[in-house]
Amino acid sequence: xxxxxxxxxxxxxxxxxxxxxxxxxxxxxxxxxxxxxxxxxxxxxxxxxxxxxxxxxxxxxxxxxxxxxxxxxxxxxxxxxxxxxxxxxxxxxxxxxxxxxxxxxxxxxxxxxxxxxxxxxxxxxxxxxxxxxxxxxxxxxxxxxxxxxxxxxxxxxxxxxxxxxxxxxxxxxxxxxxxxxxxxxxxxxxxxxxxxxxxxxxxxxxxxxxxxxxxxxxxxxxxxxxxxxxxxxxxxxxxxxxxxxxxxxxxxxxxxxxxxxxxxxxxxxxxxxxxxxxxxxxxxxxxxxxxxxxxxxxxxxxxxxxxxxxxxxxxxxxxxxxxxxxxxxxxxxxxxxxxxx
Length: 341
Ligand code: KG4
Ligand code: ZN
Fold this sequence. Notes:
By secondary structure, the protein is α/β, with parallel strands linked by helices. Helix content is about 40%, strand content about 20%. Strand 6 (about 120) and strand 7 (about 125) form a beta hairpin.
């Protein structure tokens, strides 16, 4: 089966061609530079950029895969959650392609696609579910922080989520308080590598809470007050590195501790992680260390599949069609607030 998949839920225009579990191409056009000027994603700009980029990106993906439109067997797109006007661009374009080709169309839940992205690896990236195990999956991005129990393929239950800021948002907002450009996450990761994570003691919100929920706004507020009360801490490069490393350590400790606790409580032996924040080196290291210590198998999404991409949308759509899921009707609409479950 050869599928075309489109992802435009936020600030990445991505198109992939997937065939029999193999990612033949996964073209991504990032809008980060455009939104950086405003310190965050501007929905109207995002939609306009998707409109501008979608056809060239689609053409590039088909070319890279050496696939002609008439060779496609199905078309999929992210249906939600996401920015309404951004979602509309990819979703409606994908429906139009499927309609023109008289092929089945499938709308995919963005987070459900993240859940299976850690099972895609290699060159070319290929989905391998032969070793699939029930797992607890951590999804950490700029917009979401979720813990999900994946009981079997295509069957999952949300355990917890953030009650306020997402983990990536916390990186971005605390980085902004330190004067780092948007999105601050990757830069905080880089600066932290030569910083002391124990230099400053920041709160670990909900670390010992019985629930699987997260909360990061208290940490953000603690950093705001710290920076206000210690303006000199931003003048020295080493002190900024120490601050980054200390904030990062707080975020990572909460994510790792709560993920492993949820895995233990639910009796699974496997942990997976995906989403933009999974690019973070300290998070990857700490999850690896903790899972090895506690005897869990760990599957981290490959870096290029951590951030938003259409490959994961195509892989999940293919699994769903093979599992017998009925294609969507052409009057289906986007679901910007779609909750996983
Ligand atoms: O999944 P993603 O590309 O987009 C969505 O938010 O859906 O994630 C982007 C988020 C941003 O908040 C960004 O700062 C964060 O992921 N991020 C990182 C790193 N790379 C990306 N945060 C910490 N360390 C990184 N290396
Ligand atoms: Zn995402």
